[in-house]
């Protein structure tokens, strides 16, 4: 987990639990390009950042090895697969007994309809983003996942009429 970034001569050093990683402007440009299109070929990336293909490839390998790049996946339109409903669930965790929150979150995210889970402060403990094929499907999921759970004491479901999101991380520190 990154703790602190310090700008030094157009380079950024991130310190994290005894580990120092240096990212320069070229690294930031590569990260921005890859976030927008992970399918870009090394030849295209190297031309965009002004590096030889071998140097570009080595930088990308280092970004993967250092854990800066963590996943590469295609985004699928849920509606094309019959998931017509987007849902936000706000849930309270039961205060009775010993609840292992990490285990609960790990079990919940295994459900194919659950896309994100956030442990939050405030009125609720968990914010859960999920999809459903229909209202009947949503009712079955809500009942089996939340109503029948000893770990969840209460929950509210909100159906999203529309949504916008951008999962890119700001990479420019200039």
CATH class of the largest domain: Alpha Beta
Could you tell me the mean pLDDT? Answer: 88
**Beta-strand content estimate:** 25-35%
Q: Ranges with pLDDT <50 over ≥5 residues?
A: 1-12
Assembly level: single chain
Shape summary:
elongated
SS field, number of helical segments? 5
Compute the separation of the termini in Å: 22 Å
CATH topology of the largest domain: Alpha-Beta Plaits
Q: What is the helix fraction of residues, given as a range?
A: 25-40%
- Domain count: 2
Nearest-angstrom radius of gyration? 21 Å
Descriptive account of the structure:
This protein is of the alpha+beta class and 174 residues long. The protein is built from five helices and seven strands, in the order E-E-E-H-H-H-E-H-E-E-H-E. It has helices spanning 25-36, 42-49, 53-65, 101-109, 135-147; strands spanning 4-8, 11-16, 19-24, 85-93, 114-119, 126-132, 152-160. A four-stranded antiparallel sheet has the order 5-6-4-7, covered by helices on one side. Strands 1-2-3 form a three-stranded antiparallel sheet. Helix 2 (42-49) packs across helix 3. The longest helix is centred in the middle third of the chain and has 13 residues, at 53-65.
Which structural traits does this protein have?
7 strands, Arc Repressor Mutant, subunit A, disordered N terminus, elongated, alpha+beta, 3-stranded antiparallel β-sheet, 5 helices, Alpha-Beta Plaits, 174 residues
Task: Set down the secondary structure blueprint.
Blueprint: E1 4-8, E2 11-16, E3 19-24, H1 25-36, H2 42-49, H3 53-65, E4 85-93, H4 101-109, E5 114-119, E6 126-132, H5 135-147, E7 152-160
Antiparallel strand pairs: 1-2, 2-3, 4-6, 4-7, 5-6
Helix pairs in contact: 2-3
